[in-house]
Each structure stands twice: as structure tokens, then as C-alpha cells.
């Protein structure tokens, strides 16, 4: 079980989404893949946050990754995304996101959202280290009942959250936020995973 990335994202009703704080653990990637993965994780997180309605939680699978997203919305217009492998359990992932959103809201005023470079929120790095083992999330399971009562939408593929006719491959190709090396990393990873299906 692995957490690759955690992001806090401003999701205004008008205008583009902005990553306010992000932490990655890319130790499972080879040295040559790390810079590409470091670019891809916030791009993937921002994409799923943009396609998640306010007040909604959902889990989206893409290749070997699962992005759990909670767009809390409200006056702060905040979303949190945790990108994990497919073995990481859903309940602790959403518990972590809920606690992270509470802590970020308490420490960072909305007035700083316009300048993400001015935001200092080192706690996000602590989260990604501490909760690599989902058992450590047990201390934040106070939202368990709320999650049981809330329908979490599990999308089998990223395509189900993209707009009609949109494909993640096309978004990756058109993105100015990703280098050509990161685009190649995404395509290579997708190709390697598609060739290993056992019939």
C-alpha cells in the first residue's frame, strides 16, 4: 500500500483550479522517472478536482493509481486529493482528506489563496509520511459514520469523470503544465500496464 501524492486545491466556481499545497512520495519510482512523476501527480490531482462537484467525494482509477478526491466546496472552495495505489483502503483515505482540509482551513486564510507561493503548510509532508500505513489513520476515523452514510462514487476509469469526448491522453498532450518527458512517462506507464493483462 502506497500514498504517492497529497494535494490541496482551490476550486473556485469561476476560474481555474489552483494547487495550493502538495507533497509527493516518489521513492517507489526509479531515479529517472521521479521528475516526470512529480509533474504528473499534481496535474492528475488538479484534473480530478476540477471534475468533482462541490460536496462530492469520489475515487477515480487510472492505470495503477487511484485518486481519492473530496471537494468540500463551501465558502473556502477547497478540495483535497490523495493519489494512492489500488490497494490503499478507501475509508482511511477519505478520513485523511477530511482532517487535512480541517487543518488547512484553520491555519491558512482564504486571502492567501491568490498567491500559493506565500502559503506555508509543512503539515502536508507529515501526512504523506505518517499515513503510508493506513492503520495510522485509525486516530482520525471520527468521520467513519459520515462516510458510511455518504455515497462515495467509484469510477472505474478516468474517462467517466472527463467531459464527453475528452480523454486523459488528449489532456496530457495539450497540457502546458507537463514537460515532454512527463508526457512520455505517462504514455510509457500506460503502455506497460496495458501489455501485462493475463487472459
From TrEMBL:
The keyword Cell membrane applies. One of its GO terms (molecular function) is SNAP receptor activity. Keywords: Cell membrane, Coiled coil, Lipoprotein, Membrane, Methylation, Palmitate, Prenylation. It is a lipid-anchor. It comes from the Eukaryota. It is found in: Cell membrane. GO terms for biological process: endoplasmic reticulum to Golgi vesicle-mediated transport. The keyword Transcription regulation does not apply. InterPro entries: Longin-like_dom_sf, Longin_dom, R-SNARE_YKT6, Synaptobrevin-like, V_SNARE_CC. Residues 139-199 form the V-SNARE coiled-coil homology domain. Pfam families: Longin, Synaptobrevin. Residues 8-128 form the Longin domain. Its main location: membrane. GO terms for cellular component: Golgi apparatus; plasma membrane. Belongs to the synaptobrevin family. This is Synaptobrevin homolog YKT6. The lineage of its organism: Eukaryota, Fungi, Dikarya, Basidiomycota, Agaricomycotina.
Amino acid at each position: 500500500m502506497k500514498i504517492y501524492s497529497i494535494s490541496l486545491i482551490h476550486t473556485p466556481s469561476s476560474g481555474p483550479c489552483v494547487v495550493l499545497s502538495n507533497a509527493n512520495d516518489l521513492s517507489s519510482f526509479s531515479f529517472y522517472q521521479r521528475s516526470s512523476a512529480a509533474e504528473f501527480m499534481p496535474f492528475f490531482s488538479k484534473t480530478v478536482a476540477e471534475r468533482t462537484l462541490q460536496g462530492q467525494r469520489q475515487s477515480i482509477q487510472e492505470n495503477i493509481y487511484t485518486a481519492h478526491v473530496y471537494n468540500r466546496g463551501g465558502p473556502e472552495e477547497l478540495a483535497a486529493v490523495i493519489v494512492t495505489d489500488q490497494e490503499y483502503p478507501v475509508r482511511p483515505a477519505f478520513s485523511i482528506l477530511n482532517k487535512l482540509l480541517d487543518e488547512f482551513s484553520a491555519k491558512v486564510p482564504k486571502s492567501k489563496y491568490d498567491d500559493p507561493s506565500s502559503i506555508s503548510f509543512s503539515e502536508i509532508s507529515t501526512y504523506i509520511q505518517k499515513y503510508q500505513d493506513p492503520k495510522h489513520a485509525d486516530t482520525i476515523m471520527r468521520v467513519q459514520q459520515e462516510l458510511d452514510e455518504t455515497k462515495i462514487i467509484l469510477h472505474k476509469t478516468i474517462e467517466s469523470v472527463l467531459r464527453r469526448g475528452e480523454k486523459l491522453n488528449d489532456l496530457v498532450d495539450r497540457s502546458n503544465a507537463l514537460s515532454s518527458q512527463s508526457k512520455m512517462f505517462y504514455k510509457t506507464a500506460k503502455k506497460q500496464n496495458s501489455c501485462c493483462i493475463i487472459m
